[in-house]
Amino acid sequence: MDDVLQNIMDHAVAVAREAGQVVREALCDEKQRDVMTKSSTVDLVTQTDQRVEHLIIQSVKKKFPTHRFIGEESVAAGEACVLTDDPTWIIDPIDGTTNFVHSFPFVAVSIGFSVDKKIQFGVVYSCLEDKMFTARRGKGAFCNGEPLQVSDQEDVRRSIIATEFGSNRETETVEKIFSSLRNILNIPVHGVRGAGTAAVNMCLVASGCVEAYYEVGVHVWDVAAGSVIVEEAGGVLMDVEGGPVDLMSRRIVAANNGTVAHRIVKEIDAFSPTRDDAPPTQ
Ligand code: IPD
Ligand code: CA
């Protein structure tokens, strides 16, 4: 089983690198960045997102024909977002699509692999930085082959916290996002940052550059790969109200340790977006 999983992970790394190359080339071609919208006028997608997801899925299907997929753009096109016990690739072809559209330099290909509903490995390729983040459960986390370790900071007042504003502009949601942000700034923390991609934010936690990342509104494909990268770098995952994390719930805290995670949770004005695995409304 060890060799089988390694073989699958090697393929994930290879296809993420190939996908990253396509994304880099597309950045130089305005047509490849033409914007379409999904759930709102600020939830963006381009033909490159769709092309890259297709490339990854076709490549995996050739080698592993029985595996299942949850891909951001396939779900947007109407496929079910249901995690079973079967081997499943959870794919965000471009995490940071808004960054991609604007050439803001953090864009990642994110691939998580799940068996028995547990993420077995994660690959995040931050393709403009050429950083390949990888982690396999029980085997550590790495960036370009170098081991990763979270920060050992216990004091949230000496921390940088990462978060995002997401793409929901409903007044109540924006109020809650700002209420959490105000609370956290007022702790006070050293700073608040956001790379514009959930996957990269989680890799920043794993790398020890920021102590924690939280967001309400993410999707399973944004955080599946990053979740195992954070845990294997020594970090913890939590729900924004303090319980165990549920990757379908669209709520996440990823932190260097439990002390910082619990402190952040106290300040988050939590809410519950529609789950990723909710049955479609008629
Ligand atoms: C988004 C990014 C963003 C986060 C959103 C995600 P996308 O993913 O990760 O940082 O705030 O919640 O949906 O749309 O660029 O793949
Ligand atoms: Ca995406």
From TrEMBL:
<dbReference type="GO" id="GO:0007165">
    <property type="term" value="P:signal transduction"/>
</dbReference>
<dbReference type="InterPro" id="IPR020550">
    <property type="entry name" value="Inositol_monophosphatase_CS"/>
</dbReference>
<keyword id="KW-0963">Cytoplasm</keyword>
<comment type="subunit">
    <text>Homodimer.</text>
</comment>
<feature type="binding site">
    <location>
        <position position="94"/>
    </location>
    <ligand>
        <name>Mg(2+)</name>
    </ligand>
</feature>
<dbReference type="Pfam" id="PF00459">
    <property type="entry name" value="Inositol_P"/>
</dbReference>
<dbReference type="InterPro" id="IPR033942">
    <property type="entry name" value="IMPase"/>
</dbReference>
<keyword id="KW-0452">Lithium</keyword>
<feature type="binding site">
    <location>
        <position position="222"/>
    </location>
    <ligand>
        <name>Mg(2+)</name>
    </ligand>
</feature>
<comment type="pathway">
    <text>Polyol metabolism; myo-inositol biosynthesis; myo-inositol from D-glucose 6-phosphate: step 2/2.</text>
</comment>
<dbReference type="InterPro" id="IPR020583">
    <property type="entry name" value="Inositol_monoP_metal-BS"/>
</dbReference>
<protein>
    <recommendedName>
        <fullName>Inositol-1-monophosphatase</fullName>
        <ecNumber>3.1.3.25</ecNumber>
    </recommendedName>
</protein>
<feature type="binding site">
    <location>
        <position position="95"/>
    </location>
    <ligand>
        <name>Mg(2+)</name>
    </ligand>
</feature>
<dbReference type="GO" id="GO:0006021">
    <property type="term" value="P:inositol biosynthetic process"/>
</dbReference>
<dbReference type="GO" id="GO:0008934">
    <property type="term" value="F:inositol monophosphate 1-phosphatase activity"/>
</dbReference>
<keyword id="KW-0479">Metal-binding</keyword>
<dbReference type="GO" id="GO:0046854">
    <property type="term" value="P:phosphatidylinositol phosphate biosynthetic process"/>
</dbReference>
<dbReference type="GO" id="GO:0046872">
    <property type="term" value="F:metal ion binding"/>
</dbReference>
<comment type="similarity">
    <text>Belongs to the inositol monophosphatase superfamily.</text>
</comment>
<dbReference type="GO" id="GO:0005737">
    <property type="term" value="C:cytoplasm"/>
</dbReference>
<feature type="binding site">
    <location>
        <position position="92"/>
    </location>
    <ligand>
        <name>Mg(2+)</name>
    </ligand>
</feature>
<keyword id="KW-0460">Magnesium</keyword>
<dbReference type="InterPro" id="IPR000760">
    <property type="entry name" value="Inositol_monophosphatase-like"/>
</dbReference>
<keyword id="KW-0378">Hydrolase</keyword>
<feature type="binding site">
    <location>
        <position position="72"/>
    </location>
    <ligand>
        <name>Mg(2+)</name>
    </ligand>
</feature>
<dbReference type="InterPro" id="IPR020552">
    <property type="entry name" value="Inositol_monoPase_Li-sen"/>
</dbReference>
